Amino acid sequence: MTDKKIEPRKQFSTILADYLLQLRKNRKLSLADVASQTEMSSQAISLYERGKRFPSVKAMAKLAWFYNVDEQAALKIRENAIIDTTRILGDDTPAAIKNEYVALTFKDPQITIDGEPLTADELARATEYIKALRVKQNNTSKK
Fold first, then answer.
1. Are 53 and 96 contacting, i.e. CB atoms less than 8 angstroms apart?
2. Rounded Cα–Cα distance for residues 28 and 23 (Å)
């Protein structure tokens, strides 16, 4: 029998979980109360509040509306939790969170060519060009 060192499971950032739990507790609501008013399951809300899952943007907007808090501020907290989680988990970050992290980092691109930042249109065209190159590359490698 080999002695394998068991590494403690890394956890998601608790920034968003703490925020959502505090919103509910401050209003003295049960999970069932929030679930019935938001048409979400108590289980999903519990997972969000325990930092086991991130709500989608749509779910986060619905929760912001329900708790009567600024939607953009709530979404920013969600973004910060995704960034923080990616930093905590590193290579162990689940793919869905990595994808959102990448999207967030390109939200306000600071990519420059010849000292000039790319415009949103230039970035979109460059992205389409790269996608076309990848398709061509995949087709070539299958032959």
1. no
2. 9
What's the CA dihedral at 68, 107, 18, 72 to 10 degrees? -10
- Assigned CATH for 15-105: 1.10.260.40
Q: Give the start-to-end residue ranges of the domains of the chain.
A: 15-105, 112-141
The one-digit pLDDT tens for each residue of the chain (143 residues) are 455 544 445 678 899 999 999 999 999 999 999 999 999 999 999 999 999 999 999 999 999 999 999 999 999 999 999 999 999 999 999 999 999 988 887 766 567 788 788 787 888 898 899 989 989 888 887 76
10: helix, coil or strand? coil
